[in-house]
């Protein structure tokens, strides 16, 4: 949203979002002298499009206020964390262009300080070791309508708690037998404040610290400590942590950090009819329904990158979505709109025939190949031209010919004349059918005077079709994607928790025919295939002698931009 201005030469002021207004107020009041934000993922899966919003928001705030941005892994739960996920997250953040300050940070690097912080709380009488089982703790906690009741171990002496906690660290107790809990208020209306667990006994090998620890801090205890240690000024997180904010503030207050960070919550990004939950994606991967975490039908950042989305398109999408405190869903078509807008002026428009039908120009010289000048992008002359081979035998799209056409069909049919894009006018004179009656070959004649760019100003034709010369055609595999979720069934998940899979989410076309201007192409390069959409060379499966293309998005959009 922009404010109106009376001075036409003056740029309109952009309205700030509620987080920026809060930061402005904190700076004006002298609460912080430098802004420092962070992106703190747990390395238990690949990041998805929702995480991209958090990355770009936190990085954008740091950049706007000339502050710092940290990448830190909240690796306090080694049961699901892997080095593979750490590496994929680093790649995603760097690909998005979110330049983090210093080295990659890990919560596990602060385990010693967290342990000392827990000892400090015990000495202040603010934490105690509890022997209740997990079920008993849940029972004692109470409900939203009923207060909880104190643990029978809540009044242990400071000395006893210190010894028990040290014994927990030294491995004297089995997993799950004891926990360290904060001593706050079992009658608090906020259940998160009813003596939450700070540490648990768990013998697990950690991806970063190995077997050094057999006790691990809980996220709600570790996170505010990490932020405070790193000098984070504003801990920007999603709305589900709003009820956890009192505990966050309690931890940093009781540990007496001199400049405690401030937690601010914003609404998550929800896309319609997509799978974002890590456990659901993991299930799809484990069951072989998708080709790994980077399957182009998913909306993990790795999958979007493999499919051909660009950092610029995702940034544009996030700017359009905006930042708010109200949860809402965004149509996937908006993301498609952004990638179209980003690529349409930047990428060359190549000729590719996905469903080939042979076309023979009977009066064109046999054995002759001529090279025609073809603009790389008709809307952007700066991209120049390229040479495309043309010959007597070509391939055209099957649906660019009909033996018995309906009204207002302007492409090729018996007796009709069309323009071959950037080439000549041709007229259909004959067809060849197979034994089943299918048209397998179309015969035409061409008019040499109608060569594109020759200044021909004669008769007009209503139809223009693209083509590829048969003799020089490059064969390729092309993958067409639809939504992974079957939208017709009305929900993403079935009653049993499985994903409602669209059986047509992937269509693989073999032996597609492309013009031969892909000699220097590498994985990740993207193009517009004339009339077929935007496509990207698959970075995982494509090889120089066996190209594989993923369709990023079609040319048509259901999204309408309100200007």
Automatic annotation (TrEMBL):
Name listed for the protein in its UniProt record: Glutamine--tRNA ligase
Q: How does it assemble?
A: Monomer.
Catalytic activity line of the entry: tRNA(Gln) + L-glutamine + ATP = L-glutaminyl-tRNA(Gln) + AMP + diphosphate
Summarize where L-glutamine binds, as residue positions: 74, 219
Keyword Aminoacyl-tRNA synthetase carried by entry: yes
Gene symbol of the encoding locus: glnS
A single BP term in Gene Ontology: glutamyl-tRNA aminoacylation
Provide the alphabetized UniProt keywords.
Answer: Aminoacyl-tRNA synthetase, ATP-binding, Cytoplasm, Ligase, Nucleotide-binding, Protein biosynthesis
Instruction: Report which superkingdom the organism of origin falls in.
Output: Bacteria
């Amino acid at each position: 949203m922009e404010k109106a201005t009376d001075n036409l030469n003056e740029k309109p002021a952009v309205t700030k979002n509620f987080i920026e207004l809060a930061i402005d107020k904190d700076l004006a009041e002298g609460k912080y002298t430098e802004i420092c934000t962070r992106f703190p993922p747990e390395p238990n899966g690949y990041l998805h499009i929702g995480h991209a919003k958090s990355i770009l928001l936190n990085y954008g705030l740091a950049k706007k206020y000339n502050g710092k941005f940290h990448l830190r892994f909240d690796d306090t739960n080694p049961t699901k964390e892997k080095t593979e996920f750490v590496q994929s997250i680093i790649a995603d953040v760097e690909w998005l262009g979110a330049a983090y300050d210093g080295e990659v940070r890990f919560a596990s690097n602060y385990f010693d300080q967290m342990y000392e912080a827990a000892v400090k709380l015990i000495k202040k009488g603010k934490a105690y070791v509890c022997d209740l089982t997990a079920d008993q703790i849940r029972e004692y906690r109470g409900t939203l309508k009923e207060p909880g009741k104190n643990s029978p171990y809540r009044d242990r002496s400071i000395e006893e708690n210190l010894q028990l906690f040290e014994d927990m660290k030294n491995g004297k107790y089995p997993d799950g037998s004891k926990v360290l809990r904060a001593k706050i208020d079992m009658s608090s209306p906020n259940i998160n404040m009813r003596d939450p667990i700070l540490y648990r006994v768990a013998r697990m090998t950690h991806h970063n610290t190995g077997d050094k620890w057999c006790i691990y801090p809980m996220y709600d205890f570790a996170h505010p400590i990490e932020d405070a240690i790193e000098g984070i000024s504003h801990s920007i997180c999603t709305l589900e942590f709003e009820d956890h904010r009192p505990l966050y503030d309690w931890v940093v207050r009781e540990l007496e950090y001199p400049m405690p960070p401030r937690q601010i919550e914003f609404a998550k990004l929800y896309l319609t009819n997509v799978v974002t939950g890590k456990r659901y994606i993991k299930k799809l991967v484990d069951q072989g329904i998708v080709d790994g975490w980077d399957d182009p039908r998913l909306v993990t950042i790795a999958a979007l990158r493999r499919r051909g989305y660009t950092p610029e398109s995702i940034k544009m999408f996030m700017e359009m979505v905006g930042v708010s405190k109200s949860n809402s869903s965004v149509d996937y078509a908006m993301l498609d709109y952004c990638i179209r807008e980003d690529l349409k002026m930047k990428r060359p428009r190549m000729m590719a025939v996905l469903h080939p039908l042979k076309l023979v120009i009977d009066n064109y010289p046999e054995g002759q190949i001529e090279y025609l000048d073809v603009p790389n992008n008709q809307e952007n002359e700066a991209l120049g031209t390229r040479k495309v081979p043309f010959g007597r035998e070509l391939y055209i799209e099957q649906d660019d010919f009909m033996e018995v056409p309906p009204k207002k069909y302007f492409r090729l049919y018996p007796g009709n004349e069309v323009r071959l894009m950037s080439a000549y006018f041709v007229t259909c004179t004959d067809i060849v059918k197979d034994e089943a009656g299918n048209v397998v070959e179309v015969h035409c004649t061409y008019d040499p005077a109608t060569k594109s760019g020759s200044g021909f100003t004669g008769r007009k034709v209503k139809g223009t079709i693209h083509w590829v010369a048969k003799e020089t055609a490059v064969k390729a595999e092309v993958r067409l994607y639809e939504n992974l979720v079957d939208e017709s069934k009305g929900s993403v998940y079935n009653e049993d928790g499985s994903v409602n899979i669209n059986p047509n989410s992937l269509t693989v076309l073999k032996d597609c025919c492309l013009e031969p201007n892909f000699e220097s192409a590498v994985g990740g390069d993207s193009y517009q295939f004339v009339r077929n959409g935007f496509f990207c060379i698959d970075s995982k499966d494509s090889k120089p002698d066996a190209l594989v293309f993923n369709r990023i998005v079609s040319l048509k959009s259901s999204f309408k931009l309100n200007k």
